[in-house]
Amino acid sequence: MKTKLMTGVLLLAALLLIGCSGGGEGDAQPAADQKTEVAATPAVYPALPVTEDEALLRCKAAAAALGSNLKTALKQAMQDGGPVAALEVCNVQAPAIAAAIDEREGITVGRTSLKWRNPDNAPDAWERGVLEKFAADKSGGASTLDLETWAVVPGPDGGRDFRYMKAIPTLSLCLKCHGADVAPDVAEKIRTLYPADHATGYGLGDLRGAFSVSIAMAEVGDGGD
Ligand code: HEC
Predict the structure, then answer these.
(1) Contact residues of ligand 1, CB 6 A cut-off
(2) What is the DSSP letter of 141?
(3) Structure confidence by residue, pLDDT tens digits, 20-50
């Protein structure tokens, strides 16, 4: 891991040197060995965000993409077959839509909630803290649409992860499957698909949960560790 990271840093340094030198000086550095290595590992060039601003933009874009793709799929499924059929679609498509964005953006994006339906969406410790803070802010009068937060946290392998969360309000469309009086056939289907469901009983405007996004930060250019 460490060697790979070092190679990446060296490669980036090499690329920056090449990029800035403009050619011509040709001061004979003894870099013969490095040359072959650079040629052999072109894919190591990091596409990871270097600044927090860049990471934030990418996380916001991924959350927005997940939100709009899910809403489109949900509306279509409700129109086509009503809530019972749409439950099947959510069950399969919600994780698949998130996974497709992960792959395209090199990011991890999903949804979480203090009262989750799918146990795979249960919050980790950081997410739980943020969800509790969102709930407290909302009780204090904040609008759900304004609730978002981000932080840089230690990631695996000694790196840094940028994490972002944005609150999701309960709209009237959501009540058919998350509301206080869900139709009996819908409730039965939910029990079959999610025996441990906690995600009913919501009212219009309640905080339903949040988008949660994380991306590894590039380990370069922070002026010495
Ligand atoms: C057709 C039924 C249905 C409707 C309508 C519906 N949902 Fe869901 N919702 C589900 C299902 C099923 C899951 C579990 C998806 C999965 O397996 O990842 C879910 C999961 C979620 C989650 C992820 C956390 C968890 O509980 O697992 C959030 C957040 C969420 N829904 C918000 C909403 C919002 C907001 C709306 C309205 C815009 C909405 N849902 C409308 C069925 C529905």
Answers:
(1) 74, 83, 86-87, 90-91, 94-95, 111-113, 116-118, 121, 168, 170-171, 173-174, 176-178, 199, 208-209
(2) T
(3) 333 333 344 444 444 444 444 443 334 789 8
